[in-house]
Amino acid sequence: MLQSDYTHALLQMPNAHPLQSWTWGEFKSRWGWQMCPLVLEDGQPKMAAMILKRALPRTSFSILYVPKGPALDYADVDLRQTMLAELEQLARQEKAIFIKIDPDVVKGVGVEPEPYSPGVQFINELQERGWRFSDDQIQFRNTVELDLTLSEDDLLAAMKSKTRYNIRLAGRKGIVVRPGTPDDFPVLAEMYRETAGRDGFAIRPLAYYLDAWASFYNDGMGQPLIAEYEGEPVAAVFIVRLGQKAIYMYGASTQKERNRMPNYLLQWEAIRWAKAQGCAVYDFWGAPDEFTEADRLWGVWRFKRGFNGRVVHHIGAWDYVVRPSLYWLYTTAIPKYLNLLQKK
Predict the structure, then answer these.
(1) Is the pLDDT confidence value at 158 over 90?
(2) Other beta carbons less than 10 A from residue 57's beta carbon
């Protein structure tokens, strides 16, 4: 399949996501995966899916993953069923242990969401066909989205007063935000490493992020923004966009000049940049699974909620298991064994 044909199909879908792009598939193909793009058509594109395949060493088996996809009109019941049948057949053909999907299907909006259709209906369909909610939720299930069709003045007015104050404080205290270039990627990577160590989350080799950022940037889908004080970088974000959505996919900061609130001005300038690009939605990329202080994302949520976006709950990742015994081995037995080795 040609890149142009796949991208044309993807951009016609109502919920196209950057992780379903050809750019992401090509990038992942350099990190142990094989890209398997799939388009279903009926006179015109009806579904686009960037399926990633990983062969399991020393076996004839594989695993399949559709990150943040497939992309289609999930309000179409028949199309949903066609898509699931297609993926189930593909999993069997590819000798997959399982196939995982992670579509942007909304099941509720708000911190305490009411059931939202077609998300709830789709969950029922998945269960009826034998799909199971995955213990391995690779992407964030919940997020916070900001409506960029509002004016800048209205966006500011809707924020919590403390957030609005901190944005202005950063400017008064000498924080300057500028667009970044690939020359800034090594600095961003080191800040990302520092952030991971400070906040206690695991990261991949820095070369992985440098490759991802370069891929998005070179294909016109990514933009770094750097916050500086007196010419020294103190925080950065990397924004990824596709269609009318911009996503705050990566963020990093140092311990320096935190009292000058650089992250608030940086986030505001990212929002303004996305709006200037014609985006209608700014996705803050991640919110707690459970809105309690015990959740690992509670501190992040406290920062994001100040911008007064809406909380969006998605259905999460679901697995269709083709080989149950190997699935148990892959998802349960081997991880437990590796954890035991690490402890020893």
Answers:
(1) yes
(2) 5
